[in-house]
Amino acid sequence: MSRIGNKPIGIPAGVSVTVEGSQVTVRGPRGELARQFNPDISIRQEDGRLVVSRPSDERHHRALHGLTRALLNNMVIGVSSGYEIRLEVVGTGYRAEMDGPNLKLSLGYSHDILVVPPPTVEFQVENRGALIIIRSIDKELIGQVAADIRKLRPPEPYKGKGIRFEGEKIRLKAGKTKVGGG
After folding, report:
1. Triad 70, 71, 77: Cα angle to 5°
2. Could you confirm whether domain 3-80 is CATH 3.90.930.12?
3. Coil, strand, or helix at residue 77?
């Protein structure tokens, strides 16, 4: 049995869930999310909770059971409290700044890079351009946006310069050593 798929999802106050067949819409104080799920998995509301069940113990249904429950839980958390990812910009001359709702990055290239946020994503820059805060109600989208920004200048292994997730450990390599000679 799926331990994750069997756990019911509690619906917090202020959040409403509409289930129409395999289409689920979640509305909350921060916004609205809708998603189409596999029709094999049944989703129903019982006593202020969402319950996900599968028709059989086939491998395909077992995989979808836990996935569906996890995606629904992410939707409920997103519209009630939202998600936040923090990125650190490390390096001499590397910085981030806001250009209206867009993010402008100076990463040592010959040009600045302008990142336009998708509709439910917002950026904020703190610590004089050394910290980028990304907020959204969609966990999948915020993770993809953060990964795309990190990909613009990933941390290099010798000095650790680049964009990294807050708290990410970068294993630094030893540089060249001077060999005495004659």
Report:
1. 90
2. yes
3. helix
Phi, psi of 73 (to 5 degrees): -60, -40
At 172, phi and psi to the nearest 5? -85, 140
Angle between helix axes 59-80 and 139-152 (nearest 10 degrees) is 90
The radius of gyration of the chain's CA atoms, rounded to the nearest angstrom, is 22
| CA pair distance 34, 24, nearest whole angstrom | 6
Distance CA 100, CA 115 (A): 11
> Which CATH number does the domain 83-165 belong to among 3.40.50.12780, 3.90.930.12, 3.40.50.2000, 3.90.1640.10?
3.90.930.12
DSSP one-letter string for 118-136: PTT-EEEEETTTTEEEEEE
The answer to whether 89 and 141 are in contact (CB under 8 A) is no
Nearest Cα to Cα of residue 85 among 129, 141, 33, 128: 141
Each residue's pLDDT, cut to its tens digit, for the chain (182 residues) gives 568 888 999 999 999 999 998 899 999 999 999 999 999 999 999 888 999 999 998 999 999 999 999 999 999 999 999 999 999 999 999 999 999 999 999 999 999 999 999 999 999 999 888 999 999 999 999 999 999 999 999 999 999 899 999 998 989 998 888 876 65
